[in-house]
Amino acid sequence: MVTEHGGGNQSVERASAVMRAFLHGRAELRVSDISRLTGIGQSTVSRLLATLESAGLISKDEASGFFRLGLDHVSLAGVVLNNHPVHREARGVSQRLAAKTGLGVNVAVRDAATLFYLSNFEGEHAAKSHVLMGNRYPLHATALGKCLLAATTAEERRTLLGEPLPSYTTATVTDHARLDAAVKEAATRGYTTEIEELALGRACIAAPVRDYSGGIAAAMSLSGPLSAMNVESRESELARVVIEAADRVSLALGYQAHVMV
Questions:
Q1: Which of 138, 191, 199, 222 is deepest in the core (most CB within 10 A)?
Q2: Domain-wise residue ranges, the chain
Q3: What is the pTM of this model?
Q4: Which residue has the higher pLDDT, 185 or 220?
């Protein structure tokens, strides 16, 4: 919620809150919806929407009166992604891997306490009706997230994620002791797995992407329906494939295993 009063950057904060209201799951919102989600008065919301619309950041359906995010956000996102070193180096590798395996290939980074998707490419066996790019998912319930958490200590994870860890399915890791074990195992064998921990019927295998410093900069994964992943019999095969792909991206980022301390 954003308060109505205050100086300085208050207008920028309120405009940001208005745009972030569309992250709550609905693509189209009324003024009253945005007011409720942000705590900003409807008259102020209306003025902010008019300003954002003139800047191309908000568009309005004149027939229904509903508002949605404007296409200029796509242009801004393109600039961010095209200048992100991980996305730039992983894009071609991911596309080829998705075509070769028929599975989904995802690349993500950690942003504070969340997993942030930089890209996803879909193979023929892992088609989706939505784009994962830009989505935020929980770190503890995903293979990608557990890879990224390998760059943290147990104490840092407790501070970062808090307790208890949210449950999404009966398979979700919900206590830190089990999460510690999963992260330790990932560091030992070089990859992580996720089988119905975030969503039923889905599986994922991920490997870390390292930069020139040797630190974990991102993670790459293969994902898809349980029937396509068939982790029980294909785990070693899929792990090898995703590790090799992640290593190619790491090398492109300047990682040199032989000089790691």
A1: 222
A2: 10-70, 76-259
A3: 0.87
A4: 220
What DSSP string describes 151-212?
A: TS-HHHHHHHH-SSPPPSSTTS--SHHHHHHHHHHHHHHS-EEEESSSSTTEEEEEEEEE-T
What single-letter DSSP state applies at residue 91? H
176, 206 contact by CB (below 8 A): no
Between the two ends of the chain, the Cα-to-Cα distance in Å is 45
Lowest mean pLDDT among 90-94, 132-136, 163-167: 132-136
Q: Distance between CA atoms of 241 and 243, rounded to whole angstroms? A: 6
| CATH 1.10.150.170 for the 10-70 domain, yes or no | no
How confident is the model over 76-95, as pLDDT tens digits? 988 988 899 999 999 999 99
> 168: closest CA among 199, 129, 210?
199
Superfamily of domain 76-259: GAF domain (3.30.450.40)
